[in-house]
Write a structure and sequence with these properties.
Layout (H helix, E strand, L loop, with lengths): L1 E10 L5 H16 L4 E6 L5 E8 L9 E4 L6 E6 L3 H9 L6 E6 L4 E7 L1
Antiparallel strand pairs: 1-3, 1-4, 2-3, 2-6, 5-7, 6-7
Length: about 120
C-alpha cells in the first residue's frame, strides 16, 4: 500500500507533537474536511516524528511524501479524540511502532491503525 500526503517533521519533546500535529490537521481539514483525511506517523527518532496527511480516497494536492506501507499486520483501535493520550499510552505499552495511521471526525471520534 502506498500512502501519499503532505509531510512535515514534528518535535516529540514534551509531547509537543499533539499540539503541532493537531494544528496541521486543522489547517488541512479546513480545505478538505476532517473526515476525508488520514494522517501517517513514521520515522520516529529520539526527538521527532515524520508525519504526512493525505486523503482517504484519492491524492491530496501538493503531496510531497510517498511512503510504502505493509499490506498486513495492522491493528485498529477506535475511541474518542479527547482520549488520544490514553489510547497511545496503551498502544506504546507493547513497544515502539513502525507506522500509525490516524483518522478523525468532527464529532470527536478517532480511529488509529498501527503496525509494529
Amino acid at each position: 500500500m502506498l500512502f501519499k500526503g503532505i509531510g512535515r517533521t514534528f518535535s516529540t519533546e514534551n509531547d509537543h507533537q499533539f499540539e503541532t500535529i493537531g494544528a496541521f490537521w486543522d489547517e488541512l481539514a479546513a480545505k478538505y474536511g476532517r473526515v476525508n483525511l488520514q494522517g501517517l506517523g513514521y520515522g520516529w527518532t529520539e526527538r521527532s516524528i515524520e508525519y504526512a496527511i493525505g486523503l482517504i480516497d484519492g491524492e491530496i494536492d501538493g503531496a510531497d511524501r510517498a511512503v510504502e506501507l505493509p499490506d498486513t499486520g495492522w491493528v485498529t483501535v477506535r475511541g474518542k479524540t479527547a482520549d488520544l493520550g490514553e489510547i497511545y499510552e496503551k498502544i506504546y505499552q507493547e513497544g515502539r511502532l513502525k507506522y500509525e495511521i490516524e483518522r478523525f471526525t468532527d464529532r470527536g471520534d478517532c480511529e488509529i491503525m498501527y503496525c509494529r
